């Protein structure tokens, strides 16, 4: 961190004095002047005219209350105060350059940071293992914390408690959030492996005859399944509702209920169960990741987003 001594400036603000605050741009000019010990050489190094550099030296003398460089024969020599300041001024300029340099270099091997991700249970169980493995290989000191997503509110991104979120981007998402598509998904039906429906092709009549378990959360669309069934003159009997895909599939696995869930989301949860395409048209939907613009340029967060994208693409994708 740049250790500029800002006490005089703070005191100036608090007192409300009419004097101008320090111009910290003069630090670089002072550093070059003290290093070169010559107005002409300093001007050439900063690509300024000698007269412009002379004016800058005059300003520095006014600000510091010291002559800084005085004539001795045909050259200039530093005053005692300038000699005292020289090393410190150079250190300040170097620290400022480090602080303001674009943070493109990211040392993953030594990166120690925790990220909080808000996702559905299905996406966590299906894609998190690949994400965790990628992160472990690239940055072993990074920790991931998964928080279950139970609504479409994104306040956590805005207040900084959530670093990255996944979900269907609502039309109401404004420019205060950044988004990037991860994959397209569709709803499918799922029953236990020995369910009577697992023996033949599923018809619309089959689908509405059996009882259903439905995942429901505030603001959830579910592809307007019941609206589409109603438009076709049918309806389904929703026997129970749950708040997550894992719970819906667990109930379907242990009963005759039909669970309607996203296909890719639940790939890891549907092991040994019978899955089928819905016997009526339902629109596909896109799963995206969302983050706050303040993290957009953060190299570590960019790396995490790339890892998430690659994990969702599958095992044949490139590294993070």
Q: Secondary structure elements and their pairing?
A:
Layout: H1 7-15, H2 26-36, H3 39-45, H4 50-64, E1 69-72, E2 75-78, H5 80-100, E3 114-119, H6 121-138, E4 143-148, H7 155-159, E5 164-167, E6 178-185, E7 187-191, H8 204-209, E8 212-215, H9 225-231, E9 238-242, H10 245-253, E10 258-262, E11 274-277, E12 285-291, H11 299-313
Parallel strand pairs: 3-4, 3-5, 8-9, 8-10
Antiparallel strand pairs: 1-2, 5-12, 6-12, 7-10, 7-11
Helix pairs in contact: 2-3, 2-4, 2-5, 3-4, 6-11
Whole-number tally of structural domains: 3
Strand content: 15-25%
**In this structure, how is the largest beta sheet organized?**
5 strands, mixed
Order of helices and strands: HHHHEEHEHEHEEEHEHEHEEEH
Instruction: Report the mean per-residue pLDDT as an integer.
Output: 84
């Amino acid at each position: 961190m740049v250790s500029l001594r800002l006490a005089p400036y703070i005191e100036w603000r608090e007192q409300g004095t009419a004097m101008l605050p320090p111009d910290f741009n003069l630090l670089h000019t002072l550093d070059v002047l003290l290093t070169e010990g010559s107005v002409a050489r300093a001007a050439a190094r900063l690509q300024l005219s000698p007269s412009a550099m002379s004016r800058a030296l005059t300003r520095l003398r006014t600000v510091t209350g010291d002559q800084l460089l005085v004539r001795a024969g045909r050259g200039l020599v530093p005053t005692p105060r300038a000699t005292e300041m020289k090393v410190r001024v150079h250190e300040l300029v170097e620290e400022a350059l480090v602080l303001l340099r674009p943070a493109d270099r990211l040392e993953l091997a030594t990166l120690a940071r925790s990220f909080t991700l808000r996702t559905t249970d299905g996406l966590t169980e299906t894609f998190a293992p690949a994400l965790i493995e990628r992160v472990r290989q690239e940055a072993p000191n990074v920790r991931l914390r998964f928080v279950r997503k139970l609504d479409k509110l994104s306040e956590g991104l805005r207040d900084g408690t959530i670093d990255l979120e996944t979900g269907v981007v609502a039309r109401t998402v404004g420019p205060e959030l950044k988004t990037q598509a991860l994959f397209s998904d569709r709803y499918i039906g799922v029953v236990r492996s020995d369910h009577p429906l697992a023996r033949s092709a599923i018809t619309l009549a089959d689908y509405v005859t059996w009882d259903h378990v439905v995942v429901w959360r505030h603001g959830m669309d579910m592809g307007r399944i019941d609206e589409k069934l109603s438009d076709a003159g049918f309806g389904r009997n929703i026997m129970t509702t749950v708040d997550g895909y894992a719970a819906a599939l667990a109930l379907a696995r242990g009963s005759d209920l039909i669970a309607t869930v996203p296909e890719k989301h639940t790939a890891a949860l549907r092991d040994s169960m019978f899955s089928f395409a819905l016997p009526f048209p339902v629109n596909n939907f896109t799963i995206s990741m969302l983050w706050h613009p303040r993290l957009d340029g953060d190299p570590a967060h960019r790396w995490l987003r790339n890892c998430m994208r690659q994990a969702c693409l599958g095992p044949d994708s490139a590294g993070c």
